[in-house]
């Protein structure tokens, strides 16, 4: 794993585990000092996080952890509820044993992250399951849109979610795979809708006060 990737993973982990709360400023100089790398290296990582909507970079203001509004949080989940169940029929036509095995491996990654108490990896694994699933439906435009919605959902969960938002409390993805294996499109569509609704209802839509961040302590080895 490259140094940039390690820094990316550490900052992302801090965001989704609420150690860097929504709205927290991310000064390049302090992060550079904390990680012992150049500001250029930090800037590259922050730009990557900005592309994924975890960070906002404003001219003359620098970077800060993105803070989706309560309305935006609900709109992101509502958009997924409208789209993802409707993709089930299309992806069912492409479903096969190889896909079943592939997605079972993804579910194992989710379960391992949950067992390890690694919420950052769990959020990433859950998002990946959904957008990889959308890709096999055969509509590239919708798949790309779902991928962006999944990234934004990850931020919403980081801002307003709890561990139950990414745990089996909201439905084990293995259940969906079973339904797809059984070619039960209608039940698979209903499962997906219920699953996303449960995630939406797990959100705690409360604003948080700004916190002072000790980057040196947070990112020390």
TrEMBL record:
<dbReference type="Pfam" id="PF00392">
    <property type="entry name" value="GntR"/>
</dbReference>
<keyword id="KW-0804">Transcription</keyword>
<dbReference type="InterPro" id="IPR011711">
    <property type="entry name" value="GntR_C"/>
</dbReference>
<dbReference type="InterPro" id="IPR036390">
    <property type="entry name" value="WH_DNA-bd_sf"/>
</dbReference>
<keyword id="KW-0238">DNA-binding</keyword>
<dbReference type="GO" id="GO:0003700">
    <property type="term" value="F:DNA-binding transcription factor activity"/>
</dbReference>
<feature type="domain" description="HTH gntR-type">
    <location>
        <begin position="1"/>
        <end position="68"/>
    </location>
</feature>
<dbReference type="InterPro" id="IPR000524">
    <property type="entry name" value="Tscrpt_reg_HTH_GntR"/>
</dbReference>
<keyword id="KW-0805">Transcription regulation</keyword>
<dbReference type="InterPro" id="IPR036388">
    <property type="entry name" value="WH-like_DNA-bd_sf"/>
</dbReference>
<dbReference type="InterPro" id="IPR008920">
    <property type="entry name" value="TF_FadR/GntR_C"/>
</dbReference>
<dbReference type="Pfam" id="PF07729">
    <property type="entry name" value="FCD"/>
</dbReference>
<protein>
    <submittedName>
        <fullName>GntR family transcriptional regulator</fullName>
    </submittedName>
</protein>
<dbReference type="GO" id="GO:0003677">
    <property type="term" value="F:DNA binding"/>
</dbReference>
